[in-house]
């Protein structure tokens, strides 16, 4: 995504950076999964119309708009977050993605 945004130029690197910062923060807060970082950034790049950058005001406007788009993505995504525990597999609705959470505890040795 970064190489593509860089080659396209204009506002693309700004959108990528802003969305990535929001996505990584959401991941660290356990609001989204690791693989959703690229999904969020890609969606933000696809949703925003390309804009020429000619001033710092343009940069700040694109940055702000991209951050808001990313925040909205997270809100929509986590608004439907339902966890159903089935032997350490959680199901995410409505997208039905399986996220395997490995939580093994050492079982006590038999006496």
What can you see in these coordinates?
Helices cover 54% and strands 9% of the residues. The chain has helices spanning 2-8, 12-28, 36-47, 56-79, and strands at 85-86, 89-92, 97-100. It is globular. Mean pLDDT is 76; it is low at 81-111.
Number of strands: 3
Instruction: Outline the biggest β-sheet.
Output: 3 strands, antiparallel
Distance between the termini: 55 Å
Low-confidence stretches: 81-111
CA-atom Rg in angstroms: 18 Å
Envelope shape: globular
- Assess the beta-strand content as a share of residues: 5-15%
The succession of helices and strands, N to C, reads HHHHEEE
Amount of helix: 40-55%
Strand order of the largest sheet: 1-2-3
Question: Outline of this structure?
Answer:
By secondary structure, this protein is mainly alpha-helical.
What are the defining features of this structure?
globular; 3-stranded antiparallel sheet; 9% strand; mainly alpha; single chain; 111 residues
SSE layout:
Blueprint: H1 2-8, H2 12-28, H3 36-47, H4 56-79, E1 85-86, E2 89-92, E3 97-100
Antiparallel strand pairs: 1-2, 2-3
Helix pairs in contact: 2-3, 2-4, 3-4
